[in-house]
Write a structure and sequence with these properties.
Elements lengths: L3 H9 L3 H13 L22 E7 L5 E7 L2 H12 L6 H6 L2 H5 L4 H4 L2 H4 L2 H15 L1
Antiparallel strand pairs: 1-2
Amino acid sequence: MPTLDDIREEYDFLDPDDRYRLLIELGRDLEAMPDALKTDATLVRGCSASVWVYPARRDDGTLHFLADSNAAITKGIIALVLLSVQDRTPAAILATDVTAALSPFDLSRQLSSNRTQGIPNMIALIRETAARYG
């Protein structure tokens, strides 16, 4: 799985259309989320598309998230968010400034506000999850 820095290096050299395609590709590369986990409890509120995020605690204490969306670009956005927190301890997730990690991607300028309005809610759900497990 590429790191956020790897993606950012590639992203910086792309034109807007290719950046859009890169986000869609990131979404396609997400680990499959079983339909049974796509419930009201895992639904991220406030997103223009449906987004589900499900945490699983691993034996080593890290959290591994499964996520999906019914919109390709939104699925790419949640994939980008997860790159900053995936397979980390709850304490490390809480110490991560996901908004700052995503700021070099300048998503609010690359995508419509309709596409980016749910990002704070995605981040909040992940942080709340980490706090519960921490």
